[in-house]
Amino acid sequence: MSTNLTKREIVLEIYEKTGFPQKEVVATVQMTLDIIMNALAKGRNVELRNFGVLEVQKRKARVGRNPNKPKTEVVIPERAVVKFKSGKILKQLIKKIDIAKL
C-alpha cells in the first residue's frame, strides 16, 4: 500500500483538478483544517456527511503500567479524545479494499 496522504498532496490534487492558484488552495485547506480543529477543541463534534463524524469523547481515568517499570502502577487521568466514525459512503469504499495489500 502507498504512504500516508499529506496535506501537500491534497493541495496539489485540488490545484491540478481546479487550476486555482496553489497559494489560495493552501490557504483554503488550512482554513478548513483550522475550523475543524477549533470546533473539536471546543468540544463540538464535526459531521462530514458520507465521509464520517469526528466525535469528542471523554475517556475515563484508569490505572496503567509503565512498560519500562511494569511493577509500578500509574494513574492515567480522565481526558478528552477524538474518535472517528466513518460515514456510509466511506464504509462502502473501505469494504472494497484488498486486505492482502494492507
Main attributes of the structure:
single chain; 102 residues; alpha+beta; HU Protein, Chain A; 2 domains; three-stranded antiparallel sheet; two-stranded antiparallel ribbon; extended
List the helices and strands and how they pair.
Elements: H1 7-18, H2 22-41, E1 46-48, E2 52-59, E3 62-66, E4 69-76, E5 79-86, H3 88-95
Antiparallel strand pairs: 1-2, 2-5, 3-4
Walk me through the structure.
There is one protein chain. The protein is α+β, with helices and mostly antiparallel strands. The chain is 39% helix and 31% strand. The chain has helices spanning 7-18, 22-41, 88-95, and strands spanning 46-48, 52-59, 62-66, 69-76, 79-86. α1 crosses α2. The longest helix has 20 residues, at 22-41. The protein is extended and about 60 Å long.
